[in-house]
Amino acid sequence: MCADLVSRRRERTGTAHEVRVLIAQQLGVGAPMAGVASALGLGDRSLRRRLAAEGVSYQALLDEVRETLAVQLLETGLLTVEDVALRLGYAEASSFIVAFRRWRGTTPAAYVAPADRAGPGQ
């Protein structure tokens, strides 16, 4: 139990936590690794090494932040899929749809569709 608690606390601290925060702040411009590394006063390679030491990659953190925010934004029902894609730093909705399907196994539109409107097999 203690090991689990320590592990969960480490996930919320350290470089990975700082990177998550910076990614969320920079999503509108795509949250490039160089920009996040610079904000931390590091080079790309140093940031990569620090994240590797914590057992995570920049891309995994970027996907985690994007997935979490995508779900929150879609569940409000106030934004279109295209608007969510733009807010998450995607140039095109199609790229966001592909990523969302990878994360959740369904399209964003199907994810937010009420169960009674879902088609067969959904």
Brief overview:
The chain is mainly alpha-helical and 122 residues long.
Question: What does this molecule look like?
Answer:
It is built from 8 helices and no strands. By secondary structure, it is mainly alpha-helical. α2 crosses α3 (33-39) and α2 (14-26) crosses α5 (58-76). The N and C termini lie far apart (37 Å).
- Mean pLDDT equals 86
State the end-to-end CA separation: 37 Å
Proportion in helices: 55-70%
What class, by secondary structure content? mainly alpha
Q: Compute the CA-based radius of gyration.
A: 17 Å
SS elements, strand count: 0
Strand content: under 5%
Number of H- or I-type helical stretches: 8
Taken from the alpha-carbon principal axes, the silhouette is: elongated
**Largest pleated sheet:** none
Uncertain stretches: 116-122
SSE inventory with pairings:
Blueprint: H1 2-11, H2 14-26, H3 33-39, H4 44-53, H5 58-76, H6 81-87, H7 93-104, H8 108-112
List keywords for this structure.
disordered C terminus, 8 helices, mainly alpha
